[in-house]
Amino acid sequence: MAVGVAAVMLTSRLQATVIPSPVFVPDTTFYHQYPYIRFVEKGDTIAISDEAFYDQSARLPFAVNQYRPNINDPLLRELNDRVLPRINADSLELAYIIIRGAASPEGHYLNNKTLG
Predict the structure, then answer these.
(1) Which pLDDT tens digits describe the chain residue by residue (116 residues)?
(2) 99: Cβ contacts below 8 Å, ≥ 6 apart
(3) Which of 18, 49, 84, 106 has its CA 20 to 30 A from that of 30?
(4) How far apart are CA 55 and CA 29, in angstroms?
(5) What is the DSSP letter of 115?
(6) Dist CA 114 CA 109 (whole Å)
(7) Rounded to two decimals, what is the model's pTM?
(8) Contact 104, 8 (CB under 8 A)
(9) Strands 37-39 and 58-61
């Protein structure tokens, strides 16, 4: 299965934002492994520049001419097996998941539309 880069393939980037409980102190040794996770106070809005987003987000590639990610992708496994269980164990609220995608103009129109 061929996989490309953002400039020529269907690619998405993911960043998750969690809201800590009032007494929560993030475990820096765990959460710092995941630069795509940000902490905000409840009620705060997220402001992130495009440059910061692309520096800190995680890449989720799509196969050529496909609009569904591989369910065995390492990022999806990491989220499912490590990150989300830890967020739940720490009693955090997952506030946002920001996904930005790009599709190549050479791709099939319907695949690009579905990805969007």
Answers:
(1) 333 332 233 345 666 777 666 666 777 788 888 888 888 777 777 778 888 888 888 888 877 767 678 889 898 899 899 988 998 888 888 887 887 776 666 667 777 677 66
(2) 12, 13, 14, 60
(3) 49
(4) 20
(5) H
(6) 9
(7) 0.68
(8) yes
(9) unpaired
Burial zone of 37 (CB within 10 Å; 0-12 exposed, 13-18 middle, 19+ buried) = buried
Identity of residue 53: F
Whether the CA torsion 74, 76, 80, 85 is positive or negative: it is: positive
Rounded Cα distance between 64 and 114, Å, is 14
Distance CA 15, CA 34 (A): 10
With tokens 């409840």, the residue in question is 42
